Amino acid sequence: MAESNKTILRFEARRHRARMDIRTEGPLDACDHFFTSIKPETGQVIAAYWPHNKEFDSQPIIERLLEEGFQCALPVTQKDARPLRFAKWRDDMDLKAGDHGALEPVVTAKTEWLEPDILIVPLLAFDRRGYRLGQGGGHYDATLKELRAKKNIVAVGLAYAQQACLFNLPVEEHDQKLDWVITPQGAQSFNVL
Question: Fewest Cβ atoms closer than 10 Å to its Cβ: which of 21, 142, 174, 181?
Answer without folding.
Answer: 21
